[in-house]
Design a protein that fits this description.
Helix content is about 35%, strand content about 25%. With about 130 residues, the chain is an alpha+beta fold. The strands form two sheets. Strands 1-4-5-6-8-7 form a six-stranded antiparallel beta sheet. Strand 5 and strand 6 form a beta hairpin. Helix 4 packs across helix 5.
Length: about 130
């Protein structure tokens, strides 16, 4: 884990600290709130459906901590860009919490994710045209 002190502002006020989760993706905290800050380059790692859950401000894509942050964490987990920290003693419960928050507050994203997972899980069928006899 890398902790970086920033002096600029977030949509929720001055940033006290930023924990880099992945290059260009930081978990930020302020005196009153927080969320995830994603730079333009790192935003391209997120699906279009995930990017729609955030908002642009000051050249960064922001995800509010209560309802939107789980989308970024879920994407990063799915893509192997981040792992649940060891300090979280119940990782299965943590994932269930992410999933239920996303399903409640971002049903369009959840549906797109489920569709993509189902598509990836389906075995590819061989076409009869491609089989030589």
């Amino acid at each position: 884990m890398i902790f970086i002190r920033y002096t600029y502002h977030s949509p929720w006020g001055e940033i006290n600290s930023c924990e880099e989760l992945y290059p260009g993706i930081c978990l930020v905290s302020t005196p009153s709130h927080g969320g995830i800050q994603v730079d333009r380059e790192a935003a391209m790692l997120l699906s279009p459906a995930a990017r729609k859950c955030g908002f642009w401000d000051g050249g960064y894509l922001w995800f509010e901590e209560d309802c939107c942050e789980p989308v970024v964490l879920r994407e990063m987990l799915d893509k192997g860009l981040w792992q649940i920290p060891e300090l979280i003693k119940a990782p299965d419960a943590f994932e269930r919490s992410l999933n239920s928050t996303i399903a409640e507050y971002h049903p369009e994203y959840w549906a797109a994710r489920q569709k993509q997972l189902n598509k990836a899980a389906k075995p590819k069928r061989k076409s009869c045209e491609n089989i030589s006899r």
